[in-house]
Here is the input.
Amino acid sequence: MASSSHSHAGAFREPSVIPGFGLALGFAVSALSLVVLIPLAALVLRALSIGPAEFIRIATDARVLAALKLSFGAALIAAAVNVVFGVLVAWVLVRYQFPGRRLLDAIVDLPFALPTAVAGIALAGIYAPNGPVGELAGLFGFKVAFTPLGVVLALIFIGLPFVVRTVQPVLEEIERDIEEAAALLGASRLRTIFQVILPHIYPAVLTGFALAFARAVGEYGSVIFIAGNIPMVSEIAPLLIVIKLEEFDYSGATVIASVMLALAFAMLFVMNGVQAWQRKRLGNV
Here is the structure.
């Protein structure tokens, strides 16, 4: 018993770059609390302080519900589209050598480097009714800018790098011998993709989806220029929070922010649960 307890205690005293498990854990928890937990807790407490009846009244207001529906719906659609195109872009960058490959690899990171306002102005200039793409779309009888479609396009633009940069390293680790072995065993290309490649990259794809979704839900600068900010049509929840603050309606702003926080946390919690289950399932195979 003594030797067993000694071995368990020794597990926490193994040599490490950062000396002291307790000290490292204390710093980590303190930093997390100061930067994340305390501000979020203050937000939730401020929202709850107005009373349940007023909280529900603000949260179920038609304009608030429309903004939340647009923000979360557009974020989900954009993240799903980014998964498809992000995996394709990562595949091309990893599997093929071609002129301009390094340039394309650098262009993927542009949404990271660009200020969101610059991205929004650029998108609005292209997709506005008098822009090159917007004018062409008008010939076919539909609008891009100042509609929910414009919001989705802006969120696709800012979210694509998250999927590419998450999936790309995993694809680089997959040996081509696996694909060749599957082909020699008679597997079709489609079967190789779904039964050989996708199981390896699935956790990375889900992580990229979660990151793209999380970024899209809270995106503000690149969306407001192309959205048109029409209440009940193309007004996003982050913009509505800013409007409430400008009107000195702090209760309304904190309630909307708290609802967004709860919804985003619930969706990310589910995604992380699915990801953990998938990793466990693949590990048991």
The mean pLDDT is 83. The radius of gyration is 24 Å.
